[in-house]
Automatic annotation (TrEMBL):
One of its GO terms (biological process) is methylation. Pfam families: CbiD. Belongs to the CbiD family. One of its GO terms (molecular function) is cobalt-precorrin-5B C1-methyltransferase activity. The lineage of its organism: Bacteria, Bacillati, Bacillota, Clostridia, Lachnospirales. Keywords: Cobalamin biosynthesis, Methyltransferase, S-adenosyl-L-methionine, Transferase. The keyword Methyltransferase applies. It catalyses: Co-precorrin-5B + S-adenosyl-L-methionine = Co-precorrin-6A + S-adenosyl-L-homocysteine. Its EC number is 2.1.1.195. Transmembrane segments: none annotated. This is Cobalt-precorrin-5B C(1)-methyltransferase. Pathway: Cofactor biosynthesis; adenosylcobalamin biosynthesis; cob(II)yrinate a,c-diamide from sirohydrochlorin (anaerobic route): step 6/10.
Length: 389
């Protein structure tokens, strides 16, 4: 990496990394060069689409007469994920004809559902990495004066096991990791990577004929959906803190309806119009509860206790004790409905169910039950379609 490969986030200088796509392209370039030169090289350079040139060590070299295999080690920089420090291999072989073929080997996933960049059955190597790999190998082919064909196989030996810790199984990518990257560079703490994943998951649902889905911020919502509401299908999209952007994605994709299901500690913020619920963006839990408690006619001492509370569990317990919980939550849900409708516009129906671990369902918007039944029906249809396939 170079000195320019840093980014400032929250007043901290953080080191960028490079993608699995860059690793694959660099490994393919190194393997092709060794195939034509007939000697080992220990470092390879790669210009990324972002304009940052990488200088990468070449590892685990295996040279044969008409075939070379080698690896590049992934470095995620200061934003490590499950792929950090994995070895990405490329095997380049001479073949008959003049074409360059590209495929995935061990540990690279396969596409099993519509809606992703590649067709069903293809290796999960996205279009930018594919272009990077082809360009790198083509240049080495010309440089070596070779006019025959080449086979390029990308593999990630630990990919199948690591993929279980990623979104791949939910996205319909089976058997391994994806070879990813649009810029070739990993930027630390990238919110865009998260929102892109949300969009991709929604896009997959939409392209498989689904017009409705559940939206859950995280595991609490996902567990409640399964355990309390009896849902066991595939129409739930995890949105993390990005409620507003997820709604925008749904509008863009032509979805008809979304049912947002989440814990009160997160969704209470939506009643104040907060659509990114990360605590770094806003923490208005006490203020929202206090204002709605005051509107419910509570005495000043109760409102003061709400403002002094630390958790939403304390607040709901206090309101329950004062016999105000139902009234306050009715008021809160009306504001949540207002802001969700405003964000979804005329084309997208957005309803919500709010729960707590102690109380179960605390409140729901007026059309939540109806939308729940619509999505349940679509979930059954999705399940039957999957069984037929």
């Amino acid at each position: 990496m170079t000195e320019q490969a840093f980014v400032w986030k929250d007043q901290k200088k953080l080191r960028m990394g490079y993608t699995t796509g860059s690793c694959a392209a660099a490994a393919a370039k190194a393997a092709a060069r060794m195939l034509f030169l007939g000697e080992e090289i220990r470092q390879v350079s790669l210009m990324t689409p972002k304009g940052i040139r990488l200088y990468l060590d070449v590892e685990d070299i295996l040279r044969m007469k008409d075939k070379v295999r080698c690896a590049i080690r992934k470095d995620a920089g200061d934003d490590p994920d499950v792929t950090d420090q994995i070895l990405v291999y490329a095997e380049v072989s001479k073949t008959e004809g003049k074409q360059i073929t590209l495929d995935g080997g061990v540990g690279v996933g396969r596409i099993t559902r519509k809606g992703l960049e590649q067709d069903i059955g293809d290796a999960a190597i996205n279009k930018v990495p594919r272009a990077m790999i082809r360009e790198a190998v083509e240049k080495e082919k010309e440089r070596g004066g070779y006019t025959g064909g080449l086979s390029v196989i990308i593999s990630i030996p630990d990919g199948a096991e690591l993929a279980k810790k990623t979104f791949n199984p939910r996205l319909g990518i089976e058997g391994g990791l994806s070879v990813l990257g649009t810029t070739g560079i990993v930027e630390p703490m990238s919110e865009k990577a998260l929102t892109d994943t949300i969009f991709l998951e929604m896009k997959m649902l939409r392209e498989n004929g689904n017009e409705y889905c559940y939206l859950v911020p995280g595991n609490y919502g996902s567990d409640f959906l399964k355990e309390a509401l009896g849902y066991d299908g595939n129409l739930a999209v995890k949105c993390s803190n990005y409620i507003g952007e997820s709604i925008d994605h749904a509008v863009r994709l032509g979805m008809k309806g979304i049912l947002l299901i989440g814990h009160v500690g997160k969704l209470i913020k939506v009643a104040a119009g907060v659509m990114n619920t990360h605590s770094r963006q806003a923490d208005c839990r006490m203020e929202v509860f206090a204002s709605h408690t005051a509107m419910a006619g509570a005495d000043p001492e109760t409102v003061k206790k709400i403002m002094e509370s630390i958790t939403t569990a304390e607040m709901t317990e206090l309101l329950e004790k004062e016999q105000l919980l139902g009234q306050v939550m009715d008021s809160v849900m009306k504001r949540i409905a207002f802001y969700l409708k405003h964000r979804g516009g005329e084309s997208l129906r957005v309803e919500a169910i709010v729960f707590s671990n102690e109380n179960g369902i605390l409140g729901e918007t007026s059309g939540a039950e109806e939308l729940l039944e619509i999505i349940r029906a679509e979930s059954v249809k999705e399940k039957r379609t999957g069984e037929k396939e």
